[in-house]
Write a structure and sequence with these properties.
Layout lengths: L6 H15 L5 H23 L12 E6 L4 E6 L6 H9 L5 H8 L23 E9 L6 E6 L5 E6 L5 E8 L14 H12 L6 E10 L7 E9 L16 H10 L7 E10 L3 E9 L15 E5 L2 E7 L11 E6 L15 H24 L1 H20 L6 H4 L5 E3 L5 E2 L1 H7 L7 E5 L3 H5 L2 H8 L4 E4 L2 H10 L1 E2 L2 E5 L9 H14 L1 H10 L28 H9 L3
Parallel strand pairs: 1-7, 11-13, 16-17, 16-19
Antiparallel strand pairs: 1-2, 2-6, 3-4, 3-6, 4-5, 7-8, 9-10, 10-13, 11-12, 14-15, 14-17, 18-19
Helix pairs in contact: 2-5, 7-8, 8-13
Bound molecules: adenosine-5'-diphosphate (ADP) and magnesium ion.
The site of adenosine-5'-diphosphate has 22 residues, from helix 2, helix 3 and helix 4.
Length: 559
Amino acid sequence: MAKQQFKAESKRLLEMMINSIYTQREIFLRELVSNASDAIDKIYYKALTDDRLVFDKDSYFIKVTADKENRTLTIRDTGIGMTKEDLENNLGIIAKSGSLAFKKENESKDGHDIIGQFGVGFYSAFMVADVVTVISKALDGDGAYKWESTGADGYTIEPVEKDSVGTEVILKIKDNTEDDSYDEFLEEYRLKSIIKKYSDFIRYPIKMDMKSSRRKEGSDTEFEEYEEEQTVNSLVPIWKKNKSELTADDYEKFYSEKHYGFDKPLKHIHISVDGAVRYHSILFIPESMPFDYYSKEFEKGLELYSNGVLIMNKCADLLPDYFSFVKGMVDSEDLSLNISREMLQHDRQLKLIAKNIQSKIKGQLQSLLKDEREKYETFYKAFGRQLKFGIYNDYGTHKDVLQDLLLFYSSKEKKLVTLDEYVLRMPEDQKYIYYASGESNERIEKLPQTEMVSDKGYEILYFTDDIDEFAIKMLMTYKEKEFKSVSSGDLGIEADEKDKEAESESNDSKELFDSMTEFLSGKVKNVRASKRLRSHPVCLTTEGDVTIEMEKILNAMPN
Ligand code: ADP
Ligand code: MG
């Protein structure tokens, strides 16, 4: 019996695979450029051991050319090229990776910079092209060959003429359909921006002929178009450069080029780790809050690169929520990518990196606090609230990371102080860390409840942010000192003793207080005499954990 053919179905299968692996079709260019870079890497590694070869960096490059008229896009490289067998094996068999094989063969020596490993990236070209033609001449081959395919139907291979070693991948860009346009993949500026986005740090120059216009010679009003070959990628990523060679300006430029923010970064952190997990990272603490910071639209995360190739725009797992304001990137060669390179296979390495990064950010904030107080206060005004949320969330599990970073306005110092500074200044007989809550510092200053504590010479922290008291409740203590609201019933100072005396006075005026309590029923629990007042006739105090201010906030919360 004759075998049935799967032909039509396998074509559909390839299409399905390609279109379901990748979320964006622009990544085909990342894949083809990565392959070209791998091919140049291979010739470079070969040159290291082969005396016949001299690797002259200038003669190795990748060139991307769009031809609008013929609707073709060509990616040419001067890499190692493919023999007829290579074309059959590496492009003819889906999921076969010549690069992975190369890496395994050379594991002990070289090859760790090679990007390819899955053997599917090449086929992403079919997301944007009807026909893919590959013309290649291998370093150790017998002439050049042309491989051509319209998808899973199969491919043809035939000998062709080609002078130099290397590969040309020619895509016949799809025609536009009623609801889909492919023209963007023939536009130089669009192509350049895709390259900048994903392949900016490919080690070899990616060249394009870019059109520009200039003033005609001898004329003030007439312009002429001209074409110029440009290298569009940045080649060496700033994070792989030596810190000592970089200036604050370089980091600022990187910050704005990457569109991390419109402001200037307040501080940068440049990390290179070569330990249990290897990674490079450049992080920024912004100066001001992004306009959407507290909106649903805001997405935290860092850019994630694998070997210099962008794989994720916002990797949220790299940043805890309380440091969500941090911007920047991480590049690691130790990540296990999934097949699309858009996600990670395992998160063990990522967790290690995240933990490491978290402690670096904390360290940087602490040194900012210590050495550049003014800058820290700018930061704190923008993002302090986020730190306090961080303490409050997850039942205070992160308090150790965050408590030293808090600042509150001090009644004594008339400026922001840390808890540590407060505790250091505490007189010996002071038992508690006192705080007072209110809408503003001015209002708190006028609270009758603050008088007695202040008169005693004790410092009071002013809580003007909704979250303050909630966060403090999670801390419970700082350096073994409990927090105490000035409006709580028991202030732990000697006047409390006097309050007891006052109690007997309360008994003397029992009738008056009883009728006042009755009159205010539902509003207060009890009316009694107090010795804690100085210049005010009355004040409110609370019993138990929830203070008046917290009650106000809780009552105002939507149910
Ligand atoms: P991967 O890059 O993950 O190995 P691809 O599907 O992108 O998978 O490519 C398959 C294989 O084809 C590569 O491993 C490589 O051996 C070969 N290849 C692709 N493009 C080129 C090129 N420009 N030059 C040389 N070899 C290439
Ligand atoms: Mg590849």
